């Protein structure tokens, strides 16, 4: 009997059955997709880092080194498993050309590298260790799509030529968040081309399992070993690898939770609508002796079947959707392996979300037991409250608008030039880098004179970065990358305090301050090298804390006097603004052309290009997600408004019939519903815009906070927030309302007499 009743219900309520199954499928698909992408990303990164044997501690160093001293330090440490020193030959981007495409405008520090002997291997697209032959070069895989590179292309370095034999994955520098990229060549070619570039060293350590990275880093610094460059640890490398695709997963997970809320409300409406239609049949079953619990069991069985179908369809949908969304992830990191375990996690996640929906359904169906048999047989009872049914319409409109806005706001924020203030960079129009050169100081002085004489330049500041030995209040000695210059012209965003104004002040990045246990008003002793070779100690007050997600998030800012400080400059950066902002592209192009001959290592680019170089892939992926979520949100909103109207019209069918009996036309009744829908939708849009800007900003900020970007604020595009989102929502709601109100025409005036 139960089987027959369930099959008849499916046949008689095809729309409600299909709609419920769709909601269950969408929920299972979204959560399954989030789990699939997360497990695959995490697994692929771990697998690549295991195969490549990524170092646990890496110290980049520019300048001379004493290998024997480093080896002696490693031998004395019980936590060191392996150690190696490898060279990285920095090549000016202006001298690198692949096919007919120059890397002159590339933001990365590109260079040649030889395969390591002990660990930190560069691997091919099958994650096998590469051994290139003479004349061959393997190119970072992240450049394959960007420059349209294929095997057999010629790589020109000055007058020298190498053949692109394949592409490589670099467990350290795959991410565009990493500032350098390694091209793999043979030892023979590396030595032959060494005169073209400048060499820096990667001092790498593989530690024993369970070792304390922080304790080792402190010991390395206290030993006075080379530290003229960034320090990177295994967890930081893993975090940078996960950042881009991690933001996409965050968006999908956020949307999954929002859709779950919508689905529970929608399915409740579907159930109540169905119960109103089946009121007489339910009354008959209860009248002939079927208990309220028995009737509820029939409906629960129906939704269990739909839930199973939704889980299976959601699983398949997630697998199909993951292919395009994980393309970049698979290219950079390869396969995660252990797909069976991934599928188990997916199924568990989908079962969890279906269980939440079924619990909500069970709670709604308990109204069957409460409804009096005689009342519902006479058409007088109800299975739910008749009031406040417009509130769900407003709530679901708000959630749909929220789902639409969050990816759009995140994408517009990453594209905005002002986002650089979360990267430890002032919001200027143009950025000029001078790196990998022996005469950085001389070139910086010449650049200062050139910019001062350029009438098109309305303002600029020149920064120099060096590695300084510092002592914390607790006596801990560390090396800090300190950027010195005038930080007042293009200030970054400070979560506490402000920028340094005197040479007795210093500002720390958030991650640096947390690791060092320092805050505003603490004092730090900085060791400065004098022009005569002497060392002086300057006590600096911490004046501010700022966000920074570059250089591992561990930087500092000061304004030391160049007459007193002769610390070697690792790199120099100029931030430039023009009187006419529209000239930024042409000015940069002209600057590059003028400095090609003398500007070995000088890179100039508009800030928008700089951001696109780092976050271009992430922006593209989130853009695709925005399109998918917009379509999804509008489909859900359409279905919800349609279902709510059907429920309301069924509940008020007798009242509408009475109105027709008194002479009201269908159009008059429809106008009344249209007004109520309009109020609910407009209120929902207002609430959704607020949620998409404020709570959405908070949720995205939680993720970026872990990377050192504190005080995060959306940089919204008004056209998206106040035009596109409301317009799409209104059009969708209006279309659903027009279709839903056609039901009014089927109501007859005599029905109120029953």
List key phrases describing it.
22 helices; 21 strands; 11-stranded mixed beta sheet; 754 residues; alpha+beta; 6-stranded mixed β-barrel
Characterization of this structure:
Among the domains are: 1-53 and 243-384, no CATH class; 63-228, no CATH class; 438-599, no CATH class. The chain is 51% helix and 18% strand. The strands form two sheets. An eleven-stranded mixed β-sheet has the order 4-3-7-8-6-9-5-2-10-1-11. A six-stranded mixed β-barrel has the order 13-14-19-16-18-17. β3 (96-98) and β4 (101-102) form a beta hairpin. α1 (2-12) packs across α9 (292-325).
What does the average pLDDT come to?
A: 82
Major sheet strand order: 4-3-7-8-6-9-5-2-10-1-11
**Total number of beta strands:** 21
Largest sheet: 11 strands, mixed
Structural class: alpha+beta
**End-to-end separation:** 30 Å
Q: What shape does the CA trace take?
A: elongated
Specify the number of helices: 22
Rg over CA atoms = 32 Å
Low-confidence stretches: none
Beta-strand content estimate: 15-25%
Helix content: 40-55%
């Amino acid at each position: 009997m139960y089987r027959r009743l369930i099959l008849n219900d499916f046949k008689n309520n095809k729309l409600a059955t299909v709609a419920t199954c769709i909601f269950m499928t969408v929920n299972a698909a979204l959560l399954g997709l989030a789990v699939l992408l997360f497990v695959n990303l995490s697994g692929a990164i771990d697998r690549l880092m295991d195969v490549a044997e990524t170092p646990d501690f890496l110290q980049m160093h520019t300048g001379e080194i004493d290998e024997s001293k480093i080896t002696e330090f490693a031998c004395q440490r019980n936590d060191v498993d392996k150690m190696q020193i490898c060279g990285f030959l920095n090549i000016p981007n202006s001298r690198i050309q692949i096919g007919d495409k120059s890397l002159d405008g590339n933001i990365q520090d590109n260079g040649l590298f030889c395969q390591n002997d002990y660990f930190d291997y560069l691997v091919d697209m099958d994650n096998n260790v590469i051994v290139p032959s003479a004349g061959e070069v393997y190119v970072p895989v992240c450049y394959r799509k960007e420059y349209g590179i294929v095997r057999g292309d010629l790589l020109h370095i000055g007058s020298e030529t190498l053949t692109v034999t394949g592409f490589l994955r670099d467990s350290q520098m795959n991410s565009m968040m990493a500032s350098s990229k390694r091209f793999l060549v043979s030892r023979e070619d590396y030595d032959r081309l060494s005169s073209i570039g400048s060499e820096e060293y990667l001092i790498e350590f593989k530690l024993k399992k369970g070792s304390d990275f922080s304790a080792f880093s402190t010991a390395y610094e206290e030993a006075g070993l080379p530290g003229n460059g960034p320090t990177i640890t295994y967890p930081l490398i893993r975090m940078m690898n996960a950042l881009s695709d991690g933001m996409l997963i965050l968006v999908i997970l956020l949307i999954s939770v929002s859709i779950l809320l919508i689905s529970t409300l929608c399915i409740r409406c579907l159930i109540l609508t169905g119960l109103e239609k089946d009121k007489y049949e339910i009354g008959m079953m209860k009248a002939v002796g079927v208990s309220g619990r028995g009737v509820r069991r029939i409906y629960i069985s129906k939704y269990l079947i739909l839930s199973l179908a939704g889980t299976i369809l959601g699983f398949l949908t997630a697998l199909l959707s993951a292919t395009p969304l994980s393309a970049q992830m698979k290219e950079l990191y390869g396969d995660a392996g252990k797909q069976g375990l991934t599928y188990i996690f997916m199924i568990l996640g989908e079962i969890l979300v279906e269980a939440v929906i079924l619990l909500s359904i069970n709670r709604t169906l308990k109204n069957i037991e409460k409804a009096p048999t005689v009342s519902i047989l006479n058409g007088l009872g109800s299975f739910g409250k008749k009031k406040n049914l417009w509130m769900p319409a407003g709530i679901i409109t708000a959630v749909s608008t929220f789902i639409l806005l969050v990816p759009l706001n995140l994408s517009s924020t990453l594209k905005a030039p002002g986002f650089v203030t979360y990267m430890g960079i002032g919001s200027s129009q143009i950025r000029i880098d001078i790196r990998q050169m022996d005469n950085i100081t001389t070139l910086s002085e010449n650049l200062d004179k050139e910019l001062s004489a350029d009438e098109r330049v309305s303002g600029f500041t020149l920064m120099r970065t060096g590695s300084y030995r510092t002592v914390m209040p607790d006596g801990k000695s560390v090396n800090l990358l300190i950027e010195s210059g005038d930080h007042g012209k293009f200030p970054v965003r400070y979560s506490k305090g402000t920028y340094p104004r005197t040479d007795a002040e210093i500002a720390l990045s958030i991650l640096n301050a947390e690791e060092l246990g320092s805050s505003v008003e603490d004092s730090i002793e900085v060791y400065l090298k004098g022009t005569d070779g002497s060392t002086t100690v300057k006590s600096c007050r911490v004046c501010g804390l700022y966000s920074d997600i570059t250089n591992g998030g561990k930087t500092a800012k000061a304004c030391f006097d160049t007459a007193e400080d002769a610390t070697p400059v690792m790199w120099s950066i100029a931030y430039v603004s023009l009187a006419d902002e529209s000239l930024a592209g042409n000015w940069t192009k002209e600057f590059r052309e003028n400095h090609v001959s003398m500007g070995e290592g000088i890179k100039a680019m508009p800030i928008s290009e700089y951001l696109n170089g780092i976050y271009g892939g992430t922006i593209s992926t989130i853009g695709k997600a925005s399109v998918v979520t917009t379509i999804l949100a509008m489909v859900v909103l359409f279905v919800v408004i349609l279902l709510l109207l059907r429920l309301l019209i069924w509940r008020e069918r007798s009242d509408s019939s009475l109105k027709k009996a008194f002479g009201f036309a269908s159009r008059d009744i429809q106008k009344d519903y249209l007004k109520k829908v309009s109020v609910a939708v407009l209120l929902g849009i207002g609430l959704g815009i607020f949620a998409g800007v404020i709570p959405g900003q908070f949720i995205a900020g939680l993720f970026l906070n872990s990377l050192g970007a504190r005080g995060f604020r959306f940089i919204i595009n008004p056209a998206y927030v106040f035009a596109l989102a409301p317009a799409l929502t209104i059009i969708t709601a209006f279309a659903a309302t027009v279709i839903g109100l056609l039901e009014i025409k089927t109501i007859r005036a005599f029905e109120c007499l029953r």
